Amino acid sequence: MAEISSHPLLATDTVAVWDVLCSGTCKHKSAEECVSTTHLVFPYRGVYVHHTGQVETVAEANQVVFFNESEPYRVSHPLEGGDASLSIGIDEATLLELAPADFLHTKARLLFNRPRMRIDAPAQLLAALVRHRLARGMTETLEAEDLILSLVSRALGKRTSYAASGSVGRQKLVDRAKLVLSSDLGRRWTLAEIGSAVGVSPVYLTQLFRQVEGLPLCRYQLQLRLARALDLLDDCSDLTGLALDLGFSSYSHFSTAFERAYGLTPSAFQHFSRLS
What we know:
Elements: E1 4-11, E2 15-22, E3 39-46, E4 48-52, E5 55-59, E6 63-67, E7 74-76, E8 83-90, H1 92-98, E9 104-106, E10 109-112, E11 116-119, H2 121-136, H3 141-155, E12 161-162, H4 168-183, H5 191-198, H6 202-213, H7 217-232, H8 239-245, H9 251-262, H10 266-273
Antiparallel strand pairs: 1-2, 2-8, 3-6, 3-8, 4-5, 4-7, 6-11, 9-10, 11-12
Helix pairs in contact: 2-3, 2-7, 4-5, 4-6, 5-6, 8-9
């Protein structure tokens, strides 16, 4: 398998969407590359690290990662298994309407001044619906464009997204905790285990994570698990097995958490994602 394969899902005058898969065989930093237009990238499977200059961003399913036009970057894969992302390019005038001015280096140029934003559960749901429906060819172009603009608007919304806070050193500690969680989504981690892997006490870990990410560590882990479910549900026939594999105690536990996050049950999502 090639290191990266990119599958176009939609291309109009307003938006372009690709499903990008990476085998993740390169653990060290890749060769430097750049994109010709700014992209919003929504990881939905696996994890990688996006390097721009001295800034390192752990890219996983709770984030939207910004790939700025002509900005050199590298990618590394600290964990095995590869990754997959939904990559979205939007007409510059349209995206300038959607992006808050203080997210950009200048109001006239579409270059984000931050590497990523944490997205909420509804944004994860929209991203999954976009991908599933486009991949199946079961949505009209107009509906797909509407879903994509809704997704981007939510991912960039000041009330529906969150920028990391705290020093670079603190963010790096939190990123190490994210990698621990992502290494085994089904494992029932303890604070002591994660703290030991990161090199801090459980108390400091909980305080630090909440400060940087704006929510508790356990909530962050739950959203990673539920996002993985969004990826797998489209072709899943054993919902109980999926629930147990993701670390839930039962299907009921999984279904309740899923419905609380996304507003519909796992089986309802399967039906909804396949509607034309």
